[in-house]
Amino acid sequence: MSSINKKRLINPELNEAGMASILVTLIMSVVITLIVIGFAQVATREQSNALQNQLSTTAFYAAETGINDAINIIQKNLQTNPSYPASYYNKDSCGAPASASVGADGALFSSLYNTDTFSGDNSESGATYSCLLVNPSPSEIVTTVGQNSQVIPINTGQATAAINLTWQSTQQWNSSNCSSAADPEFTTNSTWKCELSALRVDLVTVPTGVITESSLLSDTNAAFIMPFSTATASCNGNISLGGACNSIYGATCTAGQGCHVNIILPSPSASTVYYLRVSTIYGSSDTLAVSAYNSINFAASPSPLPLTGAEYIIDSTGLTHGVSKRIQVAVPILQSTNIPGYAIQTTDDLCKRFYIIPTSAYGSSAEGIPHQAISDFGLTPADDCSSGY
What we know:
Blueprint: H1 12-80, E1 121-122, E2 127-135, E3 141-146, E4 150-154, E5 162-169, E6 198-206, H2 213-218, E7 220-226, E8 238-240, E9 248-250, E10 252-254, E11 258-264, E12 273-281, E13 285-293, E14 311-320, E15 323-332, H3 371-374
Parallel strand pairs: 7-9, 8-11
Antiparallel strand pairs: 1-2, 2-14, 3-13, 4-12, 5-11, 5-13, 6-7, 6-12, 10-11, 14-15
């Protein structure tokens, strides 16, 4: 009887294919895991960014609430007593002041900025404006000036020797386009090449005491300031109003930094207040900065004086869940629309009546308006524009 020995035959190729499948599976698992982790991190980051944006917006609105609260309280108190000094509205630290301030009339005013008035707390969202600052006397007034004029009071309480005007175009400008050769004085709008505007500045000096028509006329000056140097060297840079410049002056300009000019004021006095009416010519909108100094020695870099009665700088910081947002706004005190720019200004129709009255009419030399002679022309003092005359 014979026996047969059987041996299992192993295929080497099938054995290697099994190991390769395991490796591929492991690698795919690692890759998929990494992809999932990556997507999870992206989703977490996007969620965190969305939360931060939401908190930032909430903090911004909280800071804006502080701005609005300050404006409302200041305006309400100004309506009640507009004679309150500017120092009454000064708030240079966070929280309530340590003590009340004393006004010009000697009365002790209760603190405007107290914990109750400016709590600013919203318990539901956790949002609050954590710090509120109010500066009623900034050292620089920054505004946008265009063809509609801006009125800026210059009241420092000190002897003001000079007023600095610096303006910059809202667009890039090329200094080669700004020259007396490229832009002749008082050319037409179509031929003006400079990206910067020329300024028209009316300066009214208001001294203390009795103000008369003749004093206002003598203390009012107009200046047209070009965004380049003029041919007359004495009419550029530091200028004195009046004289032989014919109200046309040149500024000192630097490409990318704008133009500036210093108006030198005669006979500085601490009791004198000035009003600037500024508008642009040839341009639509420029950024204008105004500051005042008690010295004309600009080489010594004098510090600008505080300007009272022009605008409030209100600074508010909003806070929510560890995210803060700080905003600052300038609130003008004097509205340009409240001051006429002309001898006659109206938003309605204007009727004018002209009379031709003989110089021999009764009262013409003594009264200036000969009322009795009006009846000779069929008119009476009761007649108005509706009568057809």
